[in-house]
Amino acid sequence: MKNLLSVEPLKVEDIEKIFSKARSFKKEGISKKYSGDWILMFLEPSTRTRLSFERALNHLGFKTYLFTAEGSSLKKGETLRDTFLTLHAQGFEGVVIRTPINGQLKEVEDIPLKIINAGDGTNEHPTQALIDAYTLFEHFSSLKNLKVVYVGDIKFSRVFRSGLKLLKKLGAKVAICAPRSLKPAETELLPLDADFSSLDEALEWCDAAIFLRIQKERQNQPLITSERDYLQLYGLTPERAKFLKDRKKVYLHPGPVNRNVEIASSEVYGKGSLILKQVENGIFVRAAVVDLLYEYLLPQR
Length: 301
Known about the structure:
The protein is α/β, with parallel strands linked by helices. It has 2 domains: 3-125 and 281-297, CATH 3.40.50.1370; 127-279, 3-Layer(aba) Sandwich (Rossmann fold). The chain has 9 helices and 10 strands. Strand 2, helix 2 and strand 3 (63-67) form a beta-alpha-beta unit. Helix 1 (12-28) packs across helix 9 and helix 4 (126-140) crosses helix 9 (275-297). The protein is globular and about 55 Å long. The two termini are 16 Å apart. The relative contact order is 0.16.
C-alpha cells in the first residue's frame, strides 16, 4: 500500500495498526524518523485537515510545501496528471491532496508518489473517517456493535461515505438521520442499520452521533428552508445535548461547525462533545497513516 485514496482497501489489521500507532504517538510523541519533501495540495479550503497533516509530516521529519490552485499552472490548464509527474520529477516523495472533483485521484494513482486523499468532492475522506473511528474507539474501547448515527447533510458528505465503510469494517452499527432533501438516493444500496426521520428517535437509538456540516457550497439551490427550523428538527439543541449527557452518549462533528444550525452554540464544546478530541487526534492518526505507508514500502525501517 503506497497510497490511501479510499478506505476500501484497508483491512481490519491495517486499521488496528493505525490505531495502535496513533495511540503510541499520542502517549510517547512522534519521532523524526524520516526525511524528504511532501506537497500539501489543497484545491479547496481547509483548516483542520491541512494543518494537522502539516504538523504530522513535520513531526515525522519531512519538509512540507503548500500548493494551491490559484498560484499554479492548474489555472493555466495543466492537467493534474502532468502536475503530479512534475512533482515526481522534482524529487518530492508524497502528496496530500484535496480536490473538489469526485474520483479525480484515479488519474494519478499509478504515478510513483505516495498519495493521501484529504477529500475528493463528495466521494471520500479516508483520514477523517479514521480520526472519527479512533476517537470513538478511544472513548468506548471497542467499536463492536457500537451504534453510530450520522446526522444532517448525508447527501454531500464525503465524511459519511468513508465513515460508513470504515465503521462497518470494525463491526459498528451505522444509521443516518436527515431531512429527505439531504438524503442521497443511493443510500438504499448501502448497508445501513437504520434510517431515521426523527432526530429524537435517532438519539434514543445511538451510542454516538456524528453531526455533519450543511454544505451550502455544493448545493445548486438551498435544500433547507430555515436554519432556525433545521436546528429544532435536526440540530443538537441544549435539551438534546442534556439527553445525551444524562445517558453517557457522545457527539462529534468533523468541522467546521455552523453554530446554531447543526449544533447550538452553547453545546459545541459541551460535556458530551468529542469535537476537540477529534481535532487533537487528527495529528496522531495522520502521522500513523504516513508511517504505515512507509512501513509497507520499507519494512526494514
